[in-house]
């Protein structure tokens, strides 16, 4: 490594010109830790300043370069002894002995060329005539030194002496070291640098794709070399397979199982140093995210589906503020540009409902354990009920109003509905960096705890991947989505909030056992208090997603459904009065309760409710997911999305089928066995192929013969029938078939 001139420390010596407090001074004397400065300007003032204060002053610098005053502007400073540049001397300690000896050898000769005296000269010595700076030029000294070294059997030219001197002025003693002796081994060995650069590009393009082996990367690099360097040159530059594998080890490029382990364990790990999530009060930081719960459940249609968990956790108390489970399925599309029907995953409305649940106490349910009540927990129940009467009879889960939410960049949270809801509640949002789950590490670790403490004890647990999955998971007795949600809410109040957490220790008394989230919340409430947030019915409606639709004579058309009521009469085919919206009005809808929608009138802050016109055909609670399933089935039969009555009847049939459960009498049709290509001799073609099988039960029996079978073989005599011509005509005479008959001859 080289120490450049710009990185050299600024040395203050007698005779130096310095820039201090906007003026130029001359260093006249150094006395202890004080510096005596003479002003360059006639009207300036001299100063005496501490050397340490001089170095720490803003704008201070030593004017040894082009900024130094010229001799025409100021009188010449007093002569100062020559100063050798600093830097690089400590680097010689790690060099080999021969490299240090060469540096010391050149240092004496370079000093003699530069100052006239070698480094070992005694004080008061006079320079030799050929190296006297006052009598010779640098060119003469370069040539004299080269001649002297050649006479001592060192093949050196004047240009080499000049290069050594300039390197010494630029880098100090380190510039005199032969860099070939300190050159390390290249990371890529003898492989061409262009091939290494191309390898890095090829590997970077494969980072987001499925993991492959080293042989695939070798083949991709070979193809890239042929495209870039042509075939003949690529064969010369391309390393062998063994050299290529050693190159991957040197560059730290992993493939196969190692790459899979790195991708699953730490591919998105940021560079250190790491900063812990710091918060001092409940709600100061809340982390929210979505993950797969590794459990199968029964959806509204009665089919087994995977589920997702969306949860929010408080950083200070590790309290799970709210959590919700939603099914996850891909659905189907009828065309490349059509809307996907039947698909389902966590949506923006689930994140909005999560915000509402954070601000509302969790009510106790009749079938829950009494240990899950807030009254018998570590929460300050009396103080909470006094501040908020809704806490009476609530579950042991505190209510914490978030001040800032840390989220990822998923479309569920980064969309406009979630941002608008947070702005309405006065919550600031801070997105995490892309592909950086460690920026919200607490919620990520909480998901792992939920899967180990809750998910793996449920029927239908699938594990984190196929290697952990059982053979007959889908055939187990699965719980419904609403039942899983009920179990999760009870487990949060009982198994999480009242369970000691290893991260919740008293920093002043680390020997004490860890506290529970409820205990930490109670301690913070005693110091900072508790202020509830009450959401009115209108506030809850404003948290729902918004659709801008036109109110026609038939009502509101939303998601292939029609909503209408008498309350919409004043809004049909009228302008909304909002800029750029025309006749479109803001309509709030709930995907999990699609029976109704609400139109917001901003003029007088009123709401107009409209009902689904074909709700009577369904007659039961349903969701938009069931509607999408019925729409997909209707489209597969050749129907249209505007056939609302037919889709509503299919929704009703799906709900009835889900209520009945799987059939116990119907035997599932066996899937055909895939046997692959045919081997062996070609099969003989059936000669009776295409001929229907005879119906043996309809075949009549043959009549009994009334003659001896032996007479069947006797020669026949043709006789003429009455009314025919005389004689026995021969066959082919033109005799009609009915004019003669065959009479057997007696033996």
Automatic annotation (TrEMBL):
Q: Which SUPFAM superfamilies match?
A: Ribonuclease H-like (SSF53098)
**Which Pfam families does the annotation name?**
Mu-transpos_C
Q: Where is the Integrase catalytic domain?
A: 278-525
Region feature Disordered, mapped onto this chain: 62-84, 660-686, 724-747
Spell out the protein name for this chain.
Mu transposase C-terminal domain-containing protein
- Whose protein is this, by species? Streptomyces achromogenes
Query: From which lineage does this chain's organism come?
Result: Bacteria, Bacillati, Actinomycetota, Actinomycetes, Kitasatosporales
């Amino acid at each position: 490594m080289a120490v450049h001139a710009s990185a050299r420390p600024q040395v203050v010596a007698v005779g130096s010109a310095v820039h201090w407090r906007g003026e130029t001074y001359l260093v006249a004397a150094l006395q202890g830790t004080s510096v005596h400065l003479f002003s360059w300007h006639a009207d300036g003032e001299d100063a005496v300043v501490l050397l340490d204060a001089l170095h720490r002053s803003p704008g201070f610098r030593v004017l040894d370069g082009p900024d130094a005053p010229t001799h025409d502007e100021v009188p010449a400073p007093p002569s100062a002894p020559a100063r050798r540049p600093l830097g690089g001397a400590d680097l010689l300690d790690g060099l080999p002995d021969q490299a240090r000896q060469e540096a010391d050898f050149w240092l004496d000769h370079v000093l003699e060329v530069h100052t006239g005296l070698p480094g070992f000269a005694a004080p008061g010595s006079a320079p030799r005539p050929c190296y006297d700076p006052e009598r010779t030029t640098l060119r003469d000294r370069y040539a004299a030194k080269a001649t002297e070294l050649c006479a001592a059997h060192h093949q050196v030219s004047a240009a080499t002496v000049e290069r050594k001197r300039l390197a010494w002025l630029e880098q100090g003693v380190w510039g005199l070291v032969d860099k070939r002796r300190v050159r390390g081994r290249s990371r890529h060995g003898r492989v061409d640098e262009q091939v290494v650069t191309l390898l890095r590009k090829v590997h970077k393009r494969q980072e987001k794709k499925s993991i492959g082996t080293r042989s695939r990367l070798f083949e991709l690099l070979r193809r890239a070399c042929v495209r870039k360097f042509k075939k003949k040159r690529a064969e010369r530059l391309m390393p062998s397979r063994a050299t290529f594998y050693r190159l991957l080890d040197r560059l730290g490029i992993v493939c196969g199982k190692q790459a899979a382990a790195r991708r699953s364990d730490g591919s998105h790990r940021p560079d250190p140093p790491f900063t812990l999530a710091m918060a001092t009060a409940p709600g100061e930081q809340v982390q929210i995210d979505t993950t797969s719960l590794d459990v199968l459940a029964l959806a509204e249609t009665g089919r087994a589906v995977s589920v997702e968990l969306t949860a929010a956790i408080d950083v200070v108390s590790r309290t799970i503020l709210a959590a919700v489970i939603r099914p996850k399925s891909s659905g189907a599309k009828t065309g490349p540009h059509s809307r996907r029907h039947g698909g389902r995953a966590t949506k923006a409305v689930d994140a909005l409902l999560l915000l509402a649940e954070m601000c509302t106490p969790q009510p106790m349910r009749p079938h829950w354990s009494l240990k899950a009540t807030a009254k018998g927990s570590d929460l300050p129940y009396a103080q909470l009920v006094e501040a908020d009467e809704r806490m009476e009879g609530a579950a042991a889960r505190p209510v914490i109003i978030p001040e800032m939410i840390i989220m990822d960049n998923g479309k569920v949270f980064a969309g406009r509905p979630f941002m608008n809801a947070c702005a309405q509640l006065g919550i600031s949002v801070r997105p995490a960096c892309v592909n950086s789950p460690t920026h919200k590490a607490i919620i990520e670790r909480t998901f792992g705890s939920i899967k180990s403490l809750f998910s793996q004890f449920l029927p239908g647990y699938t594990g984190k991947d196929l290697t952990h999955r059982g053979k007959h998971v889908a055939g187990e007795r699965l719980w419904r989505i609403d039942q899983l949600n009920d179990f999760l809410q009870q487990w949060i109040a009982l198994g999480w909030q009242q369970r000691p957490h290893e991260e919740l220790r008293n920093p002043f008394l680390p020997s004490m056992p860890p506290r529970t989230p409820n205990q930490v919340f109670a301690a913070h409430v005693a110091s900072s208090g508790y202020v509830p947030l009450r959401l009115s019915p209108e506030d809850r409606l404003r948290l729902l997603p918004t659709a801008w639709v036109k109110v026609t004579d038939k009502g509101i058309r939303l998601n292939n459904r029609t909503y209408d009521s008498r309350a919409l009469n004043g809004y049909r085919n009228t302008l909304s009065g909002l800029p750029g919206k025309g006749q479109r009005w803001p309509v709030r809808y709930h995907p999990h309760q699609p029976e109704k929608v609400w139109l917001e009138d901003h003029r007088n802050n009123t709401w107009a409710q409209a009902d689904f016109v074909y709700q009577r055909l369904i007659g039961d609670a349903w969701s938009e997911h069931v509607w999408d399933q019925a729409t997909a089935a209707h489209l597969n039969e050749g129907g249209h999305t505007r056939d609302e009555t037919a889709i509503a009847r299919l929704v009703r049939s799906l709900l009835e089928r889900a209520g009945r459960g799987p059939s116990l009498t119907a035997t599932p049709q066996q899937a055909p066995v895939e046997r692959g290509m045919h081997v062996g001799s070609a099969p003989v073609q059936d000669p009776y192929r295409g001929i229907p099988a005879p119906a043996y039960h309809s075949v009549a029996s043959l009549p009994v013969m009334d003659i001896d079978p032996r007479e069947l073989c006797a020669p026949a005599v043709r006789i003429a029938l009455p009314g025919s011509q005389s004689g026995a005509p021969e066959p082919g005479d033109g005799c009609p078939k009915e004019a003669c008959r065959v009479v057997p001859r007696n033996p």
